[in-house]
Write a structure and sequence with these properties.
The chain is built from 9 helices and 4 strands. The protein is mainly alpha-helical. The protein has one domain: Rhomboid-like (Rhomboid-like fold, Up-down Bundle). The strands form 2 sheets. The protein has a two-stranded antiparallel ribbon with strand order 1-2. Strands 3-4 form a two-stranded antiparallel ribbon. The chain is globular, with a radius of gyration of 18 Å.
Length: 213
């Protein structure tokens, strides 16, 4: 059963503070030690076996102040509430799993790129939030209110478009898409085929019942 409302913004947990602090510290270290970025970034040409750790370490690096600011603000507004609702273990599965899924999808379809950023994890968190709290609203461009589920659909569509047709600036759209897909599948329990089938059957019966009424 979906929750209609949840505390929005500023609900922080110790785990989220640690994640933000690690990202901030790594960003500062990137400025002091420039060689750190190529060491820990995800190189789509060379990962297995020597650089397999970069499937995760790329997610604590960022390409600029605006990049890290947007990602950390998104965590501030959504991650604490999501963790409070799901618990630590499931929250970490979404956060870490989305990062790795974004990295793997990028490896599968791109060559010759360096990828950095927590965006795959952050978009995984936003997608999970949209699954459990679909009626919560976000301000697009800080102006236009939009239900978060519609916002996620829009982001998915943009990521698919630029992943297929190219362009879209210096943005790892496949990593974004991988993070969102992982979180959606995990939260909807589609990895559990029996659970997914039972849910589809329930929805079909519910639809037929409404038609009869």
């Amino acid at each position: 059963m979906y929750q209609q409302r949840v505390s929005f913004g500023g609900m922080m947990t110790g785990t989220v503070w640690v994640i933000i602090a690690v990202n901030a510290a790594m960003f500062l270290l990137q400025q002091v030690f420039p060689d750190l970025t190529p060491m820990l970034a995800l190189h789509t040409n060379e990962v297995f076996p020597a650089r397999i750790h970069t499937l995760l370490t790329y997610s604590v690096l960022h390409g600029g102040f605006g990049h890290i600011l947007f990602n950390m603000l998104s965590l501030y507004f959504f991650a604490g509430s999501l963790q409070a609702y799901l618990g630590l273990r499931r929250f970490l599965v979404i956060y870490i799993g989305s990062a790795m899924a974004g990295g793997l999808l990028s490896l599968a379809f791109t060559k010759g790129y360096w990828i950095v950023g927590a965006s795959a994890s952050v978009l995984g968190v936003l997608t999970a939030y949209a699954v459990y709290f679909p009626h919560s609203k976000v301000l697009v461009f800080m102006i236009l209110p939009m239900p978060i589920r519609h916002f996620i659909y829009l982001l998915m569509a943009v990521s698919v478009y630029f992943s297929v047709f190219g362009g879209g600036g210096n943005i790892a759209h496949l990593a974004h898409l991988g993070g969102m897909i992982f979180a959606f599948i995990y939260c909807r329990r589609w990895w559990n085929l029996k659970s997914a089938f039972d849910e589809l059957r329930y929805k079909w019966k519910k639809r037929k019942f409404r038609r009869i009424q």
